[in-house]
Amino acid sequence: MFSLKRLATAPDPFDGIQHMVEPIYYEDLTLGDIYLAPERIIVEEDLSLFAQVSGDDHPIHTSDTYAQSTPFKRRIAHGPFGIAMAIGQFGRIPGFQETAIAMTNVNNWKFRIPIYVGDEITVEVCILNKALRGPCVGLIERGFRLTKADGTVAQEGRSSMLIARRPPL
User: Phi and psi dihedrals of 75, rounded to 5?
Assistant: First the structure.
């Protein structure tokens, strides 16, 4: 979906350590920029909480016994869980906490392979497009790729968001 141009990896802003990070504004972004969110290991509680929030308690997500009788052989994460996790992990990339305003859409999301409990997922975010929307805000289109530790792509798609422009001096 996208190729590596510039890679920005930063510490997790929620790790309990104070990090000095400059905000990332609309003007700071270049098409092709790639950011890596902190890795996340999927745990049992992720599936149960997502089932509660979404109301989707299908046994493929909630029952080990049922899941063993399927081609997957074990419970799988809800497809939309990957979308929610990707958006949440984007918010953990330092620099965007102060400037991200609102997500406007999700497009062309592909579910390539299942996500299981125990999978370590890395979220890559590529800046695909950008457009001014006013004196204080811009719109960016982001390409997301959710990759497992073995390098296989579990999910990928696009989402646009409003982001603050750099304030005048």
Answer: -65, 145
Q: Locate 131 and state its tokens.
A: 């457009």
6-44+77-164 to CATH, choices 3.30.365.10, 3.40.50.2300, 3.90.45.10, 3.10.129.10: 3.10.129.10
User: Average pLDDT for residues 35-56, to the nearest whole number?
Assistant: 95
Type of residue numbered 13: P
Quick check: 10 pLDDT over 80?
A: no
State the average pLDDT over residues 33-39.
Answer: 94
Which residues are within 8 A (CB) of 32 and not within 5 positions of it... i.e. 6 or more apart?
A: 2, 3, 5, 6, 126, 127
Angle between helices 79-90 and 44-54 (to 10 degrees): 100
Burial grade of 44 (CB within 10 A; 0-12, 13-18, 19 or more):
exposed
